[in-house]
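@channel sequence for tomorrow's demo:
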Amino acid sequence: MSLTQRAMIFAAGEGRRMLPLTAQTPKPLLPLGDSHLIGQNLRHLAAAGVREVIVNTAYLGAQIQAALGDGSGWGLKIIYSPEPYPLETGGALLHALELLHSEPFILLNADVLCAYPLLQLCRHSLPVGALGHLILVPNPPQHEQGDFAFDKKGVITAAASGPKLTFSGISLLHPELISHYPNARQVFPLREAFAWAIAEGRLTAERYDGLWLDVGTPARLGEAQTLWAELSEQGALPFPCTQPL
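structure tokens (generated this afternoon):
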């Protein structure tokens, strides 16, 4: 069984919904527990066996590089993919394509707090011809309409009879999702490539019902901080927190 050991974290956005907290601090560096949003996700990846992480940067990117360094503090190798300005999610992957090589990789939003077992995703084998596997969660109040539904075989289709669920911001993707997408360009959203892959029947998914929070606003950051403190006090943090800051 091959084990995925490469990941990419989206960290280039301006975090406008998080203002005024992001006026001088990039969203990935907002505090969570004894670290910050991206630091906790680096711990999660390291605990799952990931060894190399590509981090794209744009808005206040120098702060992110200064805070994370080469990744050795987390037992990781961090490679940066600096962008002249935010290229959106699809453009960010196209810009980093050479760094991603030719094997599947884990993609993670920096502002997600989730207890999904990433080791399970590292061990996941994409079906022949599949370009990605998405982790979907029950729809939160801010996104009640959901994003995708999948059939009994786990394939995302427009005709799936199940309810639409929300994309968690966590996935296992093959670089060909971007390199073979016929409309890839410098700036475009990843959801376009998802739609193309879905039309081709080449995107799968699973449902996750555990701890997940999109930390996209000051209120939800406060919720995440409170939750983290409670879990820490109970000794029930979702992944080991032994790595130094």
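heads up for whoever presents: The radius of gyration is 17 Å.
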